[in-house]
Amino acid sequence: MKKAIEHILFGREKQITKEETILQPLPHKDFRFANPFIVLHHMLPKYIQPGSQLRIHPHPHRGFAPVTFMLQGEGYHKDNAGHDETVKGGDVQWMFAGKGLLHSEGPTQNFLDKGGVNEFIQLWINVPAANKWDAPSYQAATKEQLPKVLEQEGGSFRLASGNYESKTGPVKSFTPVISMIGEIEKGKRVQFAATPGYWTLLYVVNGRINVNRETVNEHHLIIFEKENDEIIVCAEENAQLLFLSAQPIDEPVAAKDNFVMNTAAEIEQAMEDYKNGKFGTLNY
Question: Which residue has the higher pLDDT, 14 or 67?
Answer without folding.
Answer: 67
